Amino acid sequence: MNEYSIHGGKRGNDRLAILSQTVGATTGEFLDRYTSSFFGDCLDLGCGGGTVTLQIADRVQHTGTVTGLDIDPVNVALARKTAHDRQMENVQFERFNAYDLADVDRYHVVYSRFLLSHLNKPSQVLANVYKGLVPGGRLLLEDTDFSGHFCFPACPAFHAYVHLYQKLLYTRGADANIGQRLYQLLQQAGFQEISVQVVQPVHTGGKGKLMAEITMEGISNALLQEGLTNRDVIQQIVQELKAFRADKNTVMSLPRIFQVSAVKPKQ
Q1: How many Å apart are CA 98 and CA 264, to the nearest integer?
Q2: Can you say whether the dihedral through the CA atoms of 125, 30, 178, 185 is positive or negative?
Q3: Fewer CB within 10 Å, N or C, the chain?
Q4: What phi and psi, each to the nearest 5 degrees, are found at residue 195?
């Protein structure tokens, strides 16, 4: 079952590529704090276009392998091509549903970014991950607190976008603000040594200011399917977001991003 509310395919992959550029620095710093954990079998769950999977593969080098799993076949195909073009032999990509993860005591690291916030049953996926990690293995998560999104000066279209995104995920049984809950969810799953920090990229120009409008476009079909708004409203919001982005005096943030590390106990 694909619960992802943002459009997939090539357009979705293009959006993910821009997103990866805007959060690449903070993700890289997050991974660097746990360099010693990257060996043996590692997993990127909900890997998208494979950007972070390849970063993990660079860290693993010859000490292990990395598997990227994603439900979108376009993402998987493009990730495979990128790995092939870069001649990376310690990485593989497969189309896969996170709910079906059934490995036991296999992975030294499982990483996942912006996946759990789209799921109806994140606790089930965390239970699967817990089983899949070796004792002492590490889980690294990045996910959103969409309520922390901001812009300056105030922009009604921006606030409408933030509201509709949260409402859409809530309507579909997911949680755009799951970042706030990750500590509790990991405790309930049995993890220990849980650490939490928050990062938030903020943009005054460049591709970072694109994220609001292309995400609004990305959820437009889902919003219409759920009857949460109409096409005229969507088009108006997108046009106002474009104008706001073009103004050099405006500031746009991404959502607050919770970065969480946790360990499966050895005993």
Answers
A1: 19
A2: positive
A3: C
A4: -125, 145
Omega prior to 153 cis, within 30 of 0 = yes
Lowest mean pLDDT among 78-82, 163-167, 189-193: 78-82
CA distance 104 to 65: 17
How many residues comprise the chain?
267
**Amino acid in position 47:** C
Task: Please indicate, yes or no, if residue 202 is contained in any of the structural domains.
Answer: yes
Q: The domain spanning residue 115 has which CATH number?
A: 3.40.50.150
Q: Give CA–CA dist 56/43, Å, rounded.
A: 9
131 or 14: which leads in pLDDT: 131
**What are the angstrom distances between the C-alpha of 87 and each of 54, 83, 126, 155?**
11, 6, 32, 45
Q: Which two tokens stand for residue 68?
A: 């990227």
Contact between 143 and 258 under an 8 Å Cβ cutoff? The reply is yes
Could you tell me if residue 160 is inside a domain?
yes
Edge-first strand order for the sheet with 151-152 is 151-152, 251-253, 202-203
Closest of 150, 148, 66, 79 to residue 111, by C-alpha: 66
Counting the structural domains of the chain, the total is 1
Q: Which domain holds residue 97?
A: 9-263
Residue 1 lies in a domain: no
In the predicted structure, residue 52 carries a pLDDT above the cut 50: yes
